[in-house]
Design goal:
14 helices; about 300 residues; binds flavin mononucleotide; eight-stranded parallel beta barrel
Protein backbone atom coordinates (compact mmCIF):
# COMPACT_ATOMS: atom_id res chain seq x y z
CA UNK A 1 0.00 0.00 0.00
CA UNK A 2 1.29 3.46 -0.87
CA UNK A 3 1.93 5.79 2.07
CA UNK A 4 -0.34 8.78 2.61
CA UNK A 5 1.78 11.89 2.17
CA UNK A 6 0.80 15.41 3.14
CA UNK A 7 2.54 18.68 2.40
CA UNK A 8 3.39 20.48 5.65
CA UNK A 9 2.35 24.07 6.19
CA UNK A 10 5.25 26.49 5.74
CA UNK A 11 3.92 29.99 6.39
CA UNK A 12 5.16 32.51 3.84
CA UNK A 13 5.62 29.82 1.18
CA UNK A 14 2.93 27.13 0.90
CA UNK A 15 0.02 29.47 0.22
CA UNK A 16 -2.80 28.46 -2.14
CA UNK A 17 -0.89 29.70 -5.21
CA UNK A 18 2.21 27.69 -4.32
CA UNK A 19 0.21 24.56 -3.46
CA UNK A 20 -1.78 24.71 -6.69
CA UNK A 21 1.21 25.21 -8.98
CA UNK A 22 3.32 22.70 -7.01
CA UNK A 23 0.69 19.97 -7.27
CA UNK A 24 0.29 20.51 -11.02
CA UNK A 25 4.02 19.95 -11.65
CA UNK A 26 4.93 17.40 -8.99
CA UNK A 27 2.97 14.23 -8.17
CA UNK A 28 3.04 12.40 -4.86
CA UNK A 29 1.18 14.40 -2.25
CA UNK A 30 -2.33 13.30 -1.28
CA UNK A 31 -3.19 16.47 0.61
CA UNK A 32 -1.78 19.59 2.21
CA UNK A 33 -2.19 21.30 5.55
CA UNK A 34 -2.50 25.06 5.07
CA UNK A 35 -0.39 27.52 7.09
CA UNK A 36 -2.22 28.72 10.19
CA UNK A 37 -5.09 31.17 10.26
CA UNK A 38 -5.62 33.28 13.31
CA UNK A 39 -8.06 35.91 14.50
CA UNK A 40 -7.22 39.48 15.40
CA UNK A 41 -9.16 41.97 17.52
CA UNK A 42 -11.30 39.18 18.94
CA UNK A 43 -13.07 37.27 16.21
CA UNK A 44 -11.90 39.09 13.06
CA UNK A 45 -10.24 37.19 10.23
CA UNK A 46 -8.41 38.69 7.26
CA UNK A 47 -10.61 38.02 4.18
CA UNK A 48 -7.56 37.32 1.99
CA UNK A 49 -6.56 34.50 4.33
CA UNK A 50 -10.01 32.93 4.00
CA UNK A 51 -9.87 33.30 0.22
CA UNK A 52 -6.78 31.05 0.30
CA UNK A 53 -9.01 28.26 1.59
CA UNK A 54 -11.92 28.52 -0.83
CA UNK A 55 -12.46 25.15 -2.53
CA UNK A 56 -12.09 26.77 -5.96
CA UNK A 57 -8.59 27.91 -4.99
CA UNK A 58 -7.58 24.42 -3.91
CA UNK A 59 -8.61 22.20 -6.78
CA UNK A 60 -5.23 20.56 -7.48
CA UNK A 61 -4.58 19.35 -3.93
CA UNK A 62 -7.11 18.81 -1.13
CA UNK A 63 -6.36 21.11 1.78
CA UNK A 64 -7.02 21.06 5.51
CA UNK A 65 -7.14 24.48 7.15
CA UNK A 66 -5.13 25.08 10.31
CA UNK A 67 -6.10 27.42 13.13
CA UNK A 68 -3.81 28.98 15.72
CA UNK A 69 -5.85 29.94 18.79
CA UNK A 70 -5.80 29.71 22.55
CA UNK A 71 -9.38 30.84 23.00
CA UNK A 72 -11.87 28.10 22.01
CA UNK A 73 -14.44 30.73 21.03
CA UNK A 74 -12.03 32.13 18.43
CA UNK A 75 -11.42 28.61 17.11
CA UNK A 76 -15.17 27.99 16.92
CA UNK A 77 -15.76 31.32 15.13
CA UNK A 78 -13.18 30.53 12.41
CA UNK A 79 -14.16 26.86 12.41
CA UNK A 80 -17.80 27.63 11.58
CA UNK A 81 -16.81 29.79 8.61
CA UNK A 82 -14.41 27.13 7.32
CA UNK A 83 -16.96 24.36 7.76
CA UNK A 84 -19.55 26.43 5.87
CA UNK A 85 -16.96 26.78 3.08
CA UNK A 86 -16.93 22.98 2.85
CA UNK A 87 -14.04 21.95 5.09
CA UNK A 88 -14.82 18.72 6.94
CA UNK A 89 -11.58 18.70 8.98
CA UNK A 90 -9.85 21.48 10.87
CA UNK A 91 -6.39 21.34 12.37
CA UNK A 92 -5.37 22.98 15.66
CA UNK A 93 -1.80 24.33 15.72
CA UNK A 94 -0.10 23.27 18.96
CA UNK A 95 3.41 23.37 17.58
CA UNK A 96 4.35 26.91 16.56
CA UNK A 97 7.66 27.54 18.38
CA UNK A 98 8.16 31.27 17.78
CA UNK A 99 8.47 33.12 21.12
CA UNK A 100 6.02 35.82 19.98
CA UNK A 101 3.39 33.09 19.64
CA UNK A 102 4.47 30.60 22.33
CA UNK A 103 4.96 33.25 25.05
CA UNK A 104 1.29 34.17 24.61
CA UNK A 105 0.35 30.57 25.34
CA UNK A 106 -0.47 29.79 21.74
CA UNK A 107 1.03 27.08 19.50
CA UNK A 108 3.71 25.15 21.42
CA UNK A 109 3.16 27.56 24.35
CA UNK A 110 0.08 25.51 25.28
CA UNK A 111 1.89 22.17 25.46
CA UNK A 112 2.86 22.45 29.15
CA UNK A 113 -0.84 22.96 30.01
CA UNK A 114 -2.77 19.72 29.44
CA UNK A 115 -5.71 21.00 31.49
CA UNK A 116 -6.12 24.01 29.18
CA UNK A 117 -5.89 21.76 26.11
CA UNK A 118 -8.53 19.45 27.57
CA UNK A 119 -10.91 22.35 28.33
CA UNK A 120 -10.33 23.72 24.80
CA UNK A 121 -11.08 20.39 23.09
CA UNK A 122 -14.21 19.88 25.22
CA UNK A 123 -15.52 23.23 24.02
CA UNK A 124 -14.62 23.07 20.34
CA UNK A 125 -16.27 19.68 19.92
CA UNK A 126 -19.56 21.45 19.35
CA UNK A 127 -18.25 22.15 15.84
CA UNK A 128 -19.62 19.83 13.14
CA UNK A 129 -16.12 19.40 11.65
CA UNK A 130 -13.56 16.73 12.58
CA UNK A 131 -10.53 18.04 14.44
CA UNK A 132 -6.88 17.07 14.20
CA UNK A 133 -3.91 18.48 16.11
CA UNK A 134 -0.34 19.23 15.06
CA UNK A 135 2.01 19.13 18.00
CA UNK A 136 5.59 18.93 19.17
CA UNK A 137 6.85 16.77 22.03
CA UNK A 138 6.62 19.70 24.40
CA UNK A 139 7.56 23.31 24.69
CA UNK A 140 10.72 22.98 26.74
CA UNK A 141 10.78 19.32 27.62
CA UNK A 142 10.05 16.28 25.47
CA UNK A 143 8.26 14.52 28.35
CA UNK A 144 5.38 17.04 28.27
CA UNK A 145 3.72 14.91 25.60
CA UNK A 146 3.16 12.06 28.05
CA UNK A 147 0.60 14.20 29.90
CA UNK A 148 -1.00 15.26 26.63
CA UNK A 149 -1.60 11.90 24.96
CA UNK A 150 -4.11 10.72 27.63
CA UNK A 151 -6.00 13.97 27.00
CA UNK A 152 -6.04 13.49 23.21
CA UNK A 153 -7.07 9.84 23.66
CA UNK A 154 -10.34 10.98 25.28
CA UNK A 155 -11.48 12.79 22.12
CA UNK A 156 -12.43 11.45 18.69
CA UNK A 157 -9.64 13.40 17.00
CA UNK A 158 -9.07 12.68 13.33
CA UNK A 159 -5.32 12.41 13.85
CA UNK A 160 -2.37 13.59 15.89
CA UNK A 161 0.47 14.96 13.77
CA UNK A 162 3.70 14.81 15.75
CA UNK A 163 6.85 16.78 14.96
CA UNK A 164 9.24 15.13 17.42
CA UNK A 165 11.13 18.20 18.58
CA UNK A 166 10.47 20.57 21.47
CA UNK A 167 9.37 24.15 20.83
CA UNK A 168 12.64 25.62 22.07
CA UNK A 169 14.53 23.44 19.61
CA UNK A 170 12.79 25.42 16.85
CA UNK A 171 13.82 23.56 13.67
CA UNK A 172 17.34 22.53 14.66
CA UNK A 173 18.89 19.62 16.50
CA UNK A 174 17.91 16.01 15.98
CA UNK A 175 14.33 14.73 15.91
CA UNK A 176 13.71 12.52 18.95
CA UNK A 177 12.70 9.22 17.38
CA UNK A 178 12.80 7.24 20.64
CA UNK A 179 10.22 9.50 22.25
CA UNK A 180 8.18 9.37 19.04
CA UNK A 181 8.24 5.54 19.26
CA UNK A 182 6.80 5.75 22.79
CA UNK A 183 4.11 8.18 21.63
CA UNK A 184 3.09 5.82 18.87
CA UNK A 185 2.51 3.09 21.45
CA UNK A 186 0.56 5.33 23.82
CA UNK A 187 -1.62 7.17 21.32
CA UNK A 188 -4.92 5.45 20.51
CA UNK A 189 -5.59 7.83 17.62
CA UNK A 190 -4.08 7.80 14.12
CA UNK A 191 -0.58 9.30 14.29
CA UNK A 192 1.15 11.20 11.47
CA UNK A 193 4.92 11.59 11.56
CA UNK A 194 6.46 14.93 10.58
CA UNK A 195 10.08 16.01 10.59
CA UNK A 196 13.27 15.90 8.53
CA UNK A 197 12.11 13.58 5.74
CA UNK A 198 14.55 14.78 3.08
CA UNK A 199 15.07 11.77 0.80
CA UNK A 200 13.44 8.47 -0.19
CA UNK A 201 16.13 6.79 1.95
CA UNK A 202 15.25 8.78 5.08
CA UNK A 203 11.58 7.99 4.46
CA UNK A 204 12.29 4.26 4.03
CA UNK A 205 14.22 4.09 7.31
CA UNK A 206 11.35 5.75 9.19
CA UNK A 207 8.71 3.68 7.42
CA UNK A 208 10.49 0.50 8.42
CA UNK A 209 10.84 1.57 12.04
CA UNK A 210 7.28 2.93 12.42
CA UNK A 211 4.88 0.75 10.40
CA UNK A 212 1.99 1.83 12.67
CA UNK A 213 2.16 5.43 11.45
CA UNK A 214 -1.00 6.40 9.54
CA UNK A 215 0.56 9.12 7.36
CA UNK A 216 3.64 11.21 6.73
CA UNK A 217 3.96 14.96 6.52
CA UNK A 218 6.83 16.56 4.62
CA UNK A 219 7.76 20.23 4.59
CA UNK A 220 11.25 21.54 3.93
CA UNK A 221 12.41 18.34 2.23
CA UNK A 222 9.75 18.74 -0.47
CA UNK A 223 10.40 22.46 -0.91
CA UNK A 224 14.09 21.62 -1.45
CA UNK A 225 13.33 18.68 -3.75
CA UNK A 226 9.80 19.00 -5.15
CA UNK A 227 10.12 15.53 -6.73
CA UNK A 228 10.49 13.92 -3.29
CA UNK A 229 6.88 12.84 -2.64
CA UNK A 230 6.71 11.27 -6.12
CA UNK A 231 10.04 9.49 -5.59
CA UNK A 232 8.80 8.07 -2.28
CA UNK A 233 5.80 6.67 -4.12
CA UNK A 234 7.98 5.12 -6.82
CA UNK A 235 7.86 7.73 -9.61
CA UNK A 236 11.37 7.94 -11.05
CA UNK A 237 13.02 11.33 -11.52
CA UNK A 238 12.29 12.70 -15.03
CA UNK A 239 15.15 12.82 -17.56
CA UNK A 240 15.53 16.55 -17.24
CA UNK A 241 14.35 17.62 -13.77
CA UNK A 242 15.73 21.18 -14.13
CA UNK A 243 13.40 21.77 -17.10
CA UNK A 244 10.37 20.97 -14.93
CA UNK A 245 11.74 23.00 -12.03
CA UNK A 246 12.15 25.95 -14.41
CA UNK A 247 8.57 25.69 -15.67
CA UNK A 248 7.33 25.46 -12.04
CA UNK A 249 9.47 28.43 -11.02
CA UNK A 250 8.46 30.56 -14.00
CA UNK A 251 4.77 29.97 -13.37
CA UNK A 252 5.16 30.89 -9.69
CA UNK A 253 7.10 34.03 -10.60
CA UNK A 254 4.47 35.08 -13.12
CA UNK A 255 1.60 34.45 -10.72
CA UNK A 256 3.20 36.33 -7.83
CA UNK A 257 3.82 39.29 -10.15
CA UNK A 258 0.07 39.33 -10.77
CA UNK A 259 -0.89 38.85 -7.13
CA UNK A 260 1.64 40.82 -5.10
CA UNK A 261 2.19 44.54 -5.32
CA UNK A 262 5.66 45.97 -5.83
CA UNK A 263 8.99 44.37 -6.71
CA UNK A 264 10.15 44.01 -3.11
CA UNK A 265 7.13 41.88 -2.13
CA UNK A 266 7.54 39.72 -5.22
CA UNK A 267 11.29 39.33 -4.73
CA UNK A 268 10.91 38.54 -1.02
CA UNK A 269 8.45 35.79 -1.87
CA UNK A 270 10.69 34.30 -4.57
CA UNK A 271 13.79 34.54 -2.32
CA UNK A 272 11.90 32.60 0.37
CA UNK A 273 11.16 29.86 -2.17
CA UNK A 274 14.81 29.76 -3.29
CA UNK A 275 15.98 29.43 0.32
CA UNK A 276 14.81 25.82 0.03
CA UNK A 277 14.88 25.23 -3.74
CA UNK A 278 18.63 25.96 -4.10
CA UNK A 279 19.22 22.56 -2.50
CA UNK A 280 18.13 21.04 -5.83
CA UNK A 281 21.24 22.55 -7.43
CA UNK A 282 24.89 21.56 -7.11
CA UNK A 283 26.36 25.01 -6.40
CA UNK A 284 23.55 25.95 -4.05
CA UNK A 285 25.32 28.42 -1.73
CA UNK A 286 26.58 30.54 -4.63
CA UNK A 287 23.13 30.55 -6.23
CA UNK A 288 21.38 31.59 -3.04
CA UNK A 289 23.82 34.44 -2.43
CA UNK A 290 23.31 35.76 -5.95
CA UNK A 291 19.53 35.61 -5.67
CA UNK A 292 19.45 37.17 -2.23
CA UNK A 293 21.39 40.20 -3.51
CA UNK A 294 18.90 40.87 -6.31
CA UNK A 295 16.97 44.11 -6.07
CA UNK A 296 15.14 44.30 -9.41
CA UNK A 297 12.74 41.95 -11.17
CA UNK A 298 14.73 42.29 -14.40
CA UNK A 299 17.97 41.19 -12.70
CA UNK A 300 16.13 38.40 -10.90
CA UNK A 301 14.83 37.10 -14.21
CA UNK A 302 18.34 37.17 -15.75
CA UNK A 303 19.92 35.36 -12.81
CA UNK A 304 17.28 32.64 -12.58
CA UNK A 305 17.36 32.08 -16.38
CA UNK A 306 21.12 31.66 -16.08
CA UNK A 307 20.78 29.17 -13.21
CA UNK A 308 18.29 27.03 -15.10
CA UNK A 309 20.16 27.25 -18.41
CA UNK A 310 23.31 25.99 -16.72
CA UNK A 311 21.42 23.03 -15.23
CA UNK A 312 19.33 21.85 -18.19
C1 LIG B 1 9.24 29.01 7.79
C2 LIG B 1 8.36 27.96 8.43
C3 LIG B 1 6.99 28.21 8.56
C4 LIG B 1 6.16 27.24 9.16
N1 LIG B 1 4.80 27.49 9.27
C5 LIG B 1 4.01 26.57 9.89
C6 LIG B 1 2.60 26.78 10.06
O1 LIG B 1 2.01 27.77 9.63
N2 LIG B 1 1.89 25.81 10.73
C7 LIG B 1 2.50 24.68 11.22
O2 LIG B 1 1.83 23.84 11.82
N3 LIG B 1 3.80 24.45 11.04
C8 LIG B 1 4.57 25.36 10.40
N4 LIG B 1 5.89 25.09 10.22
C9 LIG B 1 6.43 23.77 10.62
C10 LIG B 1 6.36 22.76 9.46
O3 LIG B 1 5.03 22.54 9.08
C11 LIG B 1 6.97 21.41 9.88
O4 LIG B 1 6.32 20.94 11.03
C12 LIG B 1 8.46 21.51 10.17
O5 LIG B 1 9.13 22.25 9.17
C13 LIG B 1 9.10 20.11 10.29
O6 LIG B 1 8.85 19.35 9.14
P1 LIG B 1 9.92 19.23 7.92
O7 LIG B 1 11.23 18.82 8.55
O8 LIG B 1 9.37 18.20 7.02
O9 LIG B 1 10.02 20.59 7.32
C14 LIG B 1 6.72 26.03 9.62
C15 LIG B 1 8.10 25.77 9.44
C16 LIG B 1 8.92 26.71 8.86
C17 LIG B 1 10.38 26.41 8.70
Amino acid sequence: MKPILSLAPIRGITDATYRDIFARYFPGFDLALAPFLTTYQGNRIKPERLKELLPENNRSLPVIPQILAKDPDHFIAIGRILHDMGHETLNWNLGCPYPMVANKMRGSGLLPHPEKIEAFLKKVHILPAAISVKIRLGRKDSTEIFKLLPVFNQFPLKEVIIHPRTGIQMYGGAVDLDTFAQCLELCKLPVVFNGDITSPASFNTLNKRFPAVSGWMIGRGALANPFLAGQIKGTPLPDNPAKILKAFHDELFEKYQELLSGPSHILDRMKGIWFYLTNSFANNKKILKKIQKTKSLQRYREITDEIFNEST
